[in-house]
Amino acid sequence: MPLHQYHFNASLSSSSPFVAPLSAFNSSASRNQNVSLPPQNFGICRCVATPQEAKTQTAYKTNVARNANMGKLQAGYLFPEVARRRNAHKEKYPDAQVISLGIGDTTEPIPDVITSSMSKKCQALSTLEGYSGYGAEQGEKSLRAAIRSTFYAHLGIDDDDIFVSDGAKCDISRLQVVFGSNVTMAVQDPSYPAYVDSSVIMGQTGQFQTDVEKYANIEYMDCTPENGFFPDLSKSPRTDIIFFCSPNNPTGAAATREQLTGLVQFAKDNGSIIVYDSAYALYMSDDNPRSIFEIPGAREVAIETSSFSKYAGFTGVRLGWTVVPKELLFSDGFPVARDFNRVVCTCFNGASTVAQVGGLACLSPEGLKAMHEVIGFYKGNTEIIVDTFNSLGFKVYGGRNAPYVWVHFPGRSSWDVFAEILEKTHVVTTPGSGFGPGGEGFVRVSAFGHRGNVLEACKRFRQLYK
């Protein structure tokens, strides 16, 4: 079916070391959102994570001390703040057609070949023959096998190296529980905020340093246009854990085979573990690795986490997976996978059986074809957004290998640009500084949107910046 004839519907989600994703599945009626934002001061925003004691003083309080690590968090997850401003804008302009290209939530319907399988499973649960209760915490064997054969064939990954979950974001926090509080970590800057925030909550970091907008004891690896959004590893000190996302959220940059080979060697030289987030791998257009395990030696130093969210529209269904190879060992020789399995069995009862049936349908020949059509639709949106900002003379990055466009506004505050765009065009974007200090001066524009909304938003961008 030609791309321009492919139609869908849906909603929105995402994050920052100072912000987070909204996962939601809305009816088609509720997806055509008319949103709006407030006229408030548009300076740099910080949502301080403090309890509302001033408003709700009570006569009684417990003797339980608050987790001091929670007090280190300097801001709420980015996207609740973006949503707050959007909603305030809607109140200010109730008749405006607000278009959201901010939170990275899918908007197009899940293909019928997938939902029909889920529906049959739901109906079967109403019968004695079809009912099932708890499943294996690690996931259904058939789905684990399908994930391996689809994404990791000939890469040395076994079915039981794969742990099915309710999403990559959830597994990131479970991995942090495995690592504990006495590890050091590195993160790309800018990057998905769950890496940093979960490290803070676990007690791996020092206090937030307001002068540099960074937490102490985290290595922020600069990823800039000048270095092709890949860190200079020769200048990076050793850390125990390295969080790395490719294609990257928010920059859209994808690491080459040569770069990932260098990253794996860097981890081996330092005895580090890479946590590799490949949630956007199927958006890859260039001939870059879609899995870290394409790199020789990666099974000894890497974990990979991924998700069906941005492939099949499962942001609300919730289904992902994490690969922990048997070859990956702690310094005492104990397998990392055994500890991860212990945490999973303690903290998680397994992904929904209905969602797992949907995942199995995604990986059928018909399901894969349908997923690629949906991905192609969003990539078409990306091309429209990239062309628009290029035509206006902006430096534009990303888009080719990811559903995000990273637009540079040199010398300007990201929040100021966000506010300007919202106030003057009624379009919601995401301020780059929400993804870390390296995102200052950038705005992320998401390709997750209905085609008509994307075209209308780009029309408004042209009118604003012509």
Structural class by helix and strand composition: alpha/beta
Low-confidence stretches: 1-45
Question: Which percent bin holds the helix content?
Answer: 25-40%
The biggest beta sheet reads: 7 strands, mixed
Q: How many alpha or pi helices?
A: 14
**Helix and strand sequence:** HHHEHHEHEHEEEEHEEHEHHHEEHEEEH
Distance between the termini: 35 Å
**In percent terms, what proportion of residues is strand?**
5-15%
Shape field = globular
| Count of β-strands | 15
User: Can you list the strand order of the major beta sheet?
Assistant: 2-10-9-8-7-3-6
**What's the gyration radius in Å?**
22 Å
Q: What's the rounded overall pLDDT mean? A: 90
InterPro entries: Aminotransferase_I/II_large, DapL/ALD1, PyrdxlP-dep_Trfase, PyrdxlP-dep_Trfase_major, PyrdxlP-dep_Trfase_small
Keywords: Aminotransferase, Pyridoxal phosphate, Transferase
Pfam families: Aminotran_1_2 (PF00155)
Cofactor: pyridoxal 5'-phosphate
